[in-house]
Amino acid sequence: MVALIMFATAIASLIQFDKTVNVVSLDNHIFSKVQQNSTQNGCDLYFGKWIYDTSYPLYTEENCSLIGDTFTCAKYGRKDSKYKNWRWQPHQCDLPRFNGTTLLEKLRNKKLIFVGDSLIRNQWRSLMCLIEPYLPPTTNKTLVLEENLKKLYVEDYNATIGFYWSPFLVESNHDNKGFHGPRVHIVRINSIVKHGRHWSDADILIFDTFVWWSPNMTILWGSFDSPDAVYQNVDSSQRPYEIALNTWSEWLEYHINRNKTRIFFTSASPISFGKSRWGTNLGCYNVTEPRSNDTNWGTHPKLSLKAVESVIENLKEKGVKVDYLNITHLSGYREDAYLSIYIKDYKNWGLKLRNPAKSDCRHWCLPGVPDIWNQFLYAYIIKP
């Protein structure tokens, strides 16, 4: 008990529009050491522009049976559709166009798992929709739920594509799947084994964690069941976030088969902050075109992004490679593509359908921006 208290006390210590209205170009590139290494045959995939392309989207909301009911903007009343038609074009190369058959062949006899919060679930649902048109007709599309893991098994390829709910990666009081109760975050920042045992046999892992790390939270030293556990309230999540990332990286270092498992980390999805935790009508509500400048760049979590990049570099030095899907800045121009008011009415969150002041400016409509994140993922996976 004394040791726990002492330990807890110690811890407390330019984008622009091109001349044509159909192109948004990222010219003031933000470089980092990790970002410079995020290349495809020497080309930085994240240095480019948004181009309006009527050959997109690659699937439709109504024809994807695996989309769920959270990211379905058209279902909940969105009438405009231009937000679906933008694709990302790197300046010095082309992103390979998504081909589900090619990906399924790469996933033959393999398990791919997304791990993290609702933004990585957004990305997982996107991948399911991208791949569904290529599934064999005999595929059982029923999703199987095993504790926090929801997965699709494609029998013809002996492939599993799943999502594991773990919003902090480490243990927390929000690990109960689908939990949307009081926003009191209690996190065991040095404990991950409970979750990690569900990932250790995966061939491809895609992680994220950011959106749940609020300024005011409680750190738990000890277990939830222990009467000797110490609960420490903190008013900044940055240092706990860094410790949790180190816990995650140490788990990877000692539990992942480096000759088998490919690891990815999706950077923080940008958020349009406003009067409520979901944003405001001054943010994403009624936006129908990509922004001509990144009005939210000042609110992007630069310290958190830096912490992730630092951990990835340290893992590289230890022989554990993590590919960084650096989607934050390029996604920040797409305020036209958030869920906004077109959401399911979660009464226990106090959200009122079509209330602009409660617009969801965190999550994305599908089809939409997460499809591009998955094109980055696809480019890495199919690379020889």
From TrEMBL:
Top-rank taxon, per record: Eukaryota
Domain Trichome birefringence-like N-terminal: 42-94
A Pfam cross-reference name: PC-Esterase
Coiled coil: none
Topology relative to the membrane: Single-pass membrane protein
Domain Trichome birefringence-like C-terminal as annotated: residue spans: 95-379
InterPro entries: TBL (IPR029962), TBL_C (IPR026057), TBL_N (IPR025846)
Transmembrane segments: none
Compartment(s) where it occurs, according to its Swiss-Prot or TrEMBL record: Membrane
Family under the similarity heading: Belongs to the PC-esterase family. TBL subfamily.
Protein name per Swiss-Prot or TrEMBL: Protein trichome birefringence-like 34
Organism: Salvia divinorum
